[in-house]
Write a structure and sequence with these properties.
With about 110 residues, the protein is mainly α. It has two domains: about 10-60; about 75-113, no CATH class. The protein is built from five helices and no strands. The model has no long low-confidence stretch (mean pLDDT about 85).
Length: about 110
């Protein structure tokens, strides 16, 4: 079993919160762009909406993304080098404790709870 064979998680609470936050920012972006196209200045838009001028400048940039650049990125952990092996062993029914004991011979220094 490869890492890519694992189905992605369904909607999670954190994922839903993220989607809601992005939708709110996208609504702000749309409002700011609409007001700007109607001829309002950045200072006026800031006064109407309560959005900072720095954010308005960002929202007016072409290609601006409301998603944080690090969202969804993961840092490698101590088990990353053993990921494929762990998935294969788990699919064969090997317990986490047995997997951990085997990985210690290969340099893993962690523990199982």
């Amino acid at each position: 079993m490869n890492y890519s064979d694992i189905p992605e998680e369904k909607d999670t609470k954190r994922g839903n919160q993220h989607k809601e936050a992005i939708e709110k920012v996208e609504a702000k972006i749309e409002k700011v762009r609409q007001l700007y196209e109607e001829g309002y200045g950045k200072l006026d838009i800031s006064k109407f909406t309560g959005i900072s001028i720095a954010s308005i400048n960002n929202y007016l940039m072409e290609g601006y993304s409301p998603v944080h650049g690090q969202y969804g990125a993961s840092r490698p952990g101590p088990l990353t080098p053993f990921k494929d092996e762990i998935l294969t062993l788990r699919s064969e029914g090997v317990t986490y404790r047995e997997i951990t004991e085997g990985l210690r011979f290969k340099g893993y220094k962690g523990d199982v709870w």
